[in-house]
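--- STAGE predict ---
source: upstream dedup step, 1 unique chain passed
mode: sequence only
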Amino acid sequence: MKYSIILLLFSYALWGQSDSCKFTKTFYSNGKVHEEGCIIDGKKEGLWNDYNESNGKIRFVWTYKNDLKDGPYKALGETGMVEATGKYYKGCLTDTVKSYNDKGQLTDYSVWKVDNYNAKSSSKVSEKVLIKPEKPDGTIETIDGKSYMWQSGRKYKLK
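--- STAGE serialize ---
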């Protein structure tokens, strides 16, 4: 369902863009899709999907303007659940970044600001943890023969 909504939004964004939009895909060396989105005048524009190399699922949905991340983004976990949301401005993280656990609960958020008028970098202004991590950082566990490490309240698959 989540993938359908993202695909629908992605399709709508492409439909509403200029006729000069060239839909483009890039690939990993293993042949799986890495990224897909619209190129206008040689630059990324609009929504772009970034795929996980190992499972082929969407891992990020970025918004580009003039070849820079500019607008909202989502980071998705292996199950398709939203892990984080945030916003970029001219390639710099800005505004509020929210992180979610595997249950979809907001675990923490941080506020970012662009450091200067030219938007060359950004810095974290504040951070608040709402839900304590289930396991301490660095905890390694094995589930169904796969190893995972806990970091910042989330488990990450180890290769």
